[in-house]
Design a protein that fits this description.
heterodimer, A: 292 residues, MetI-like fold, two-stranded antiparallel ribbon, 74% helix, globular, B: 334 residues, OB fold (Dihydrolipoamide Acetyltransferase, E2P), six-stranded mixed sheet, binds adenosine-5'-triphosphate, binds magnesium ion, transport (chain A), membrane (chain A), transmembrane helix (chain A), MetI-like (chain A), cell membrane (chain A)
Chain lengths: 292, 334
C-alpha cells in the first residue's frame, strides 16, 4: 500500500467488512444499553410497540443491590481463576511431556487435542452422567472400590465440578499453544544451562518458564475472554444452583426466568464493563511481555 | 589443570558410525584446533568431550580421572556455542553470573567475578542490556564471559566466529588468542576455516569422516602433510596436486607444490602454460595457469604486483626442495 491511490482503494474494499462487523457489534450493544434504562417486563404486557417506560438507573441499582450479585461475581472469578490455574499448570506439564520423543507421538498429539472438538453441552453431560453421577458414575465406583463414600459432585462440590469440566475442555488449547512455544526453544540454550551446572528443575525455572512467559500470557488472555461467558456447562449440570451462578448465568436468569429484560440488560452492561477491565489489564501484561 | 585424554572414543548414530575409534591426548594449557570439512564430526567430538553426547564406546579422561559418564556440569569444562546460546530474558550481567548462581556463590563474589570478566571483555557498559540489544561481536563476548567466570579447566569452542563478518572475525580471533595467552587454560576450538586454525592453534587436529588424518603444529602440517588430504586442506590458496606422467617423473603417484614455491619466468622453465584468471591482492598476486599435461590450472603466488596479463605465455618451475611426493595410497613419501 505504497501510494495514496492504492491506500484509498484498499479502504474502499475493506469498507463492507468493517461496516458489517461494526453493525454486528453495535446493534446488540446499543439495544442492550437502551433496554437497560427501560422497564421491560413482557409478562406484564410491556412491549416495544406500546413504548417502554424510562426508569433511569433503577435497573442498574437493582441488579447490584440484589443479594445474588456479589456471590455471582465471586463464582465467576472462582471458576475462571480455577480453570486458568489448572489449564496452565497441566498444560505446561503436558507440553513438556509431548515434546519428548516417544513412540506414537503423532497419534497421542491428536488425541490430546480431541476434547477441544467436543461441544460444551455434550462434554458437560458426559461428565455429569458418566463420571460424576453419585450412583452410577465412574468416580462413584472408584470411590466405593477404595471403600469411600461417593461424592455427590453436583451438589457438594459443584464449583469444583464445573472447574474440572471446563478445564478438561480448555486443556488442549493451552497444551497446544504451550507445546509450540516449547518447540521453539533453542536446545543449545538448555545445553548451555546444563554445562553451567543447572539441574533439571533450575533449567525449567530459569530457561523454560521465562521462554514460555509470552505463550502463557496469551493462553490466559484468550481463555479469560471465553471463560467469562461459559454457560452451557452450568446450564446442563447444576442449573446455576449450589453456588455456581456466574454473572453470565445470573443475567440469563433475570431475562429468561424472571422475564425482566431491562434488569438483564443492565447486568449485561456490567458484564461488558467487567470484561473490558479484565481485558485492558491483561493487554497491558501481554504488551509488557511482548515488548521483550 | 586441563589434560584431556580420548581413549578409543567411538560414536555411532544408529547404524551410522560417525566417529570410528579415535585416540587423542590434549595437554594442559594447549590450544588445540579441530579442523575438517563440513560433516566430518568435529561438533560431535566436541560435544562428546563436553558431555552433551553419549559415547558409543571408549573412554574420556580429564586430568587422569574417568569422565566418560560424568554429567556435563561435573566435568569442569565451559563451552561457547556457535549460536552463542545466551539466555534472552536475562541481562548481560545475569547471563554471565548464571553459572556462578548455579554454583551457589554469594552475591558479592558473583558481582566481583562478573565485573572482572566484563572488564577483560570490554562489556562493562553493556551489563544491563539484554542479549537482543547487542551486536554479534558483543554477544560473542558475553558467551565467552559466561564461560570464563567459572574458571573452567578447559574451554570448548564450536565455530564461535562463523556468525561474524570478516573484519570482526579477525578481531575476535586475536582476542581469543590473547585470552588464551593470559589464562593459559586448555582450549579446544572447532572450525572449518583453516586460516583460523593456522593462526590460533598450538596444535591442529585434521579430521576427515571422524578419523584423525594428522595431528601437529601448524608449521608441521604446512611443511610435511602426511597425505594428500591434509596437503590440500592446509594452506591458502590450496596446494597444487599433480598426478600422472609429470608426477612419475619425480618418482611419485602424486606430487604437491604450494603456490608460493613456484617460480615464474617468461623465457623458460619446467612447465609451459598460459595465464588464465589472475587475482591481485596488492601484497600478492595469484595466477591460475593452464599448463600442458596438467588437467587442473596451477595456482602460483607471486609477491607484489607483476606485469603478467591474461593470455600471456609463462614457464613455471617448482622449487625442488619444497616438492611434496605422495604414493598410491596418498601417503607422503619421505
Ligand atoms: N543427532 C544425530 N543423529 C544422526 N546423525 C547425526 C546427528 N548429529 C550429527 N549427525 C551426523 O554426524 C556427522 C557429523 O556431524 P557434526 O555435526 O559433528 O559435523 P561437523 O564436523 O560439526 O560439521 P560442520 O562443520 O558442518 O558443523 C554428520 O554426518 C551428521 O549428519
Ligand atoms: Mg559443527
Amino acid at each position: 500500500m505504497a501510494t495514496r491511490h492504492s491506500r484509498s482503494a484498499a479502504r474502499l474494499m475493506m469498507a463492507p467488512a468493517v461496516i458489517l462487523l461494526l453493525g454486528w457489534m453495535l446493534v446488540p450493544l446499543t439495544m442492550t444499553v437502551f433496554f437497560s434504562f427501560k422497564q421491560y417486563l413482557p409478562m406484564r404486557g410491556d412491549s416495544l410497540e406500546r413504548g417502554l417506560d424510562w426508569v433511569g438507573f433503577e435497573n442498574y441499582a437493582r441488579f447490584i443491590g440484589s443479594s445474588s450479585f456479589w456471590p455471582s461475581v465471586q463464582a465467576t472469578l472462582m471458576i475462571v481463576g480455577g480453570v486458568l490455574v489448572i489449564t496452565v499448570a497441566l498444560g505446561i506439564l503436558l507440553a513438556i511431556l509431548l515434546d519428548q520423543p516417544f513412540w506414537g507421538q503423532g497419534v497421542v498429539r491428536i488425541l490430546v487435542i480431541a476434547p477441544f472438538f467436543v461441544m460444551p453441552t455434550v462434554s458437560a453431560l458426559v461428565w455429569k452422567n458418566m463420571f460424576m453421577d453419585p450412583v452410577n458414575g465412574m468416580f462413584a465406583h472408584l470411590w466405593r472400590f477404595f471403600g469411600a463414600q461417593p461424592v455427590s459432585w453436583m451438589s457438594d462440590a459443584s464449583v469444583q465440578s464445573i472447574i474440572i469440566i471446563v478445564s478438561w475442555q480448555w486443556l488442549p488449547f493451552a497444551t497446544l499453544i504451550l507445546l509450540t512455544a516449547i518447540q521453539s526453544l533453542d536446545s543449545e540454550q538448555l545445553e548451555a544451562a546444563e554445562m553451567d551446572g543447572a539441574p533439571v528443575l533450575s533449567r525449567f525455572l530459569h530457561i523454560v518458564l521465562p521462554h514460555l512467559g509470552r505463550a502463557i500470557t496469551i493462553v490466559i488472555l484468550i481463555q479469560t475472554i471465553f471463560l467469562l461467558s461459559i454457560f452451557a456447562e452450568i446450564f446442563v449440570t447444576t442449573g446455576g444452583s449450589f453456588g455456581t451462578r456466574t454473572l453470565t448465568y445470573l443475567i440469563f436468569q433475570r431475562v429468561v426466568d424472571s422475564q425482566n429484560i431491562g434488569l438483564g440488560s443492565a447486568g449485561g452492561v456490567y458484564a461488558i464493563i467487567l470484561a473490558n477491565i479484565i481485558a485492558l489489564f491483561l493487554m497491558r501484561i501481554v504488551g509488557k511481555n511482548l515488548d521483550r | 589443570m586441563g589434560r584431556i585424554t580420548l581413549d578409543k572414543v567411538r560414536k555411532a548414530f544408529g547404524d551410522v558410525e560417525v566417529i570410528p575409534p579415535l585416540d587423542l591426548q590434549i595437554e594442559d594449557g594447549e590450544f588445540v584446533v579441530f579442523v575438517g570439512p563440513s560433516g566430518c564430526g568435529k561438533s560431535t567430538l566436541l560435544r562428546m568431550i563436553a558431555g552433551l553426547e553419549d559415547l558409543s564406546g571408549g573412554q574420556i579422561r580429564i586430568d587422569g580421572k574417568d569422565a566418560t559418564n560424568a554429567p556435563p556440569a561435573r566435568r569442569g569444562l565451559a563451552m561457547v556455542f556457535q549460536s552463542y546460546a545466551l539466555y534472552p530474558h536475562m541481562s548481560v550481567r545475569r547471563n554471565i553470573a548464571f553459572p556462578l548462581r548455579m554454583a551457589g556463590l554469594d552475591k558479592a563474589e558473583q558481582d566481583r567475578r562478573v565485573a572482572a570478566a566484563a572488564e577483560v571483555l570490554n562489556l562493562t557498559d553493556y551489563l544491563d542490556r539484554r542479549p537482543g540489544q547487542l551486536s554479534g561481536g558483543q554477544r560473542q563476548r558475553v558467551a565467552i564471559g559466561r564461560a570464563i567466570v567459572r574458571e573452567p579447566s578447559a574451554f570448548l569452542f564450536d565455530e564461535p566466529l562463523s556468525n561474524l563478518d570478516a573484519a570482526l572475525r579477525v578481531g575476535m580471533r586475536l582476542e581469543i588468542s590473547e585470552l588464551h595467552n593470559r589464562l593459559c587454560t586448555t582450549m579446544i576450538y572447532v572450525t572449518h576455516d583453516q586460516v583460523e586454525a593456522m593462526t590460533m592453534a598450538d596444535r591442529i587436529v585434521v579430521l576427515r569422516a571422524g578419523q584423525i588424518e594428522q595431528v601437529g603444529t601448524p608449521l608441521e602440517l604446512y611443511r610435511s602433510p602426511r597425505n594428500t588430504f591434509v596437503a590440500g586442506f592446509i594452506g591458502s590458496p590450496k596446494m597444487n596436486l599433480v598426478s600422472g606422467e609429470i608426477a612419475s617423473r619425480h618418482g611419485a603417484e602424486t606430487i604437491g607444490i604450494r603456490p608460493e614455491h613456484i617460480a615464474v619466468s617468461d623465457s623458460g622453465g619446467e612447465w609451459h602454460g598460459r595465464v588464465g584468471v589472475s587475482e591481485h591482492l596488492g601484497s600478492d598476486t595469484f595466477f591460475h595457469v593452464a599448463c600442458e599435461g596438467i588437467p587442473d590450472p596451477v595456482t602460483v603466488r607471486v609477491g607484489g604486483e607483476v606485469g603478467v596479463r591474461h593470455g600471456d605465455e609463462v614457464w613455471l618451475t617448482p622449487d625442488p626442495d619444497q616438492l611434496h611426493r605422495f604414493d598410491k595410497q596418498g601417503l607422503r613419501i619421505t
